[in-house]
Automatic annotation (TrEMBL):
This is tRNA(Adenine34) deaminase. PROSITE patterns: CYT_DCMP_DEAMINASES_1, CYT_DCMP_DEAMINASES_2. The keyword Metal-binding applies. The keyword Metal-binding applies. It comes from the Bacteria. GO terms for molecular function: hydrolase activity; zinc ion binding. Keywords: Metal-binding, Zinc. Pfam families: dCMP_cyt_deam_1 (PF00383). Residues 5-114 form the CMP/dCMP-type deaminase domain.
Amino acid sequence: MMTKKDDQYYMQQCLDLAKDALASGNPPVGAVLVLDGAVIGRGTESGRTSGDITNHAEILAVRDAIGHGFGGQLHQSVMYTTHEPCIMCSYVIRHHKISEIVYGSAVAHVGGASSKFDLLTTVDVPKWGNSPKVRAGMCAREAMLLSEQFDTLIKP
């Protein structure tokens, strides 16, 4: 069971990854996958600079974990991410049956839990089984401040 201290520790790693994304010209999103107290996958948002829209931090963290041989254990992992997973990332999370999601700030209109496209929490897709436990608002202020910096950078 993760403690509040653990949550802070892993969210700080996500925030550091998000700062790296921002410094590269991408939206400031960072994600880590944790299994038994160890980080098994990391993702830094890079869709804008790579030209590949699927390079969201959460998807890259899943790819990283699979690349390190943890594909069969994703259902036992916890994903930490600075921002609520979007509907695309939520599909990947549900496909791999990741057990818990901890995120900072909500994502308007396309968030996988808070929008009308609630892929993270729906029970309407039988083969997905149980939805993951979702905890919102962890380090939300820090995540929002990074988003505001990004918004300032991209405004004409």
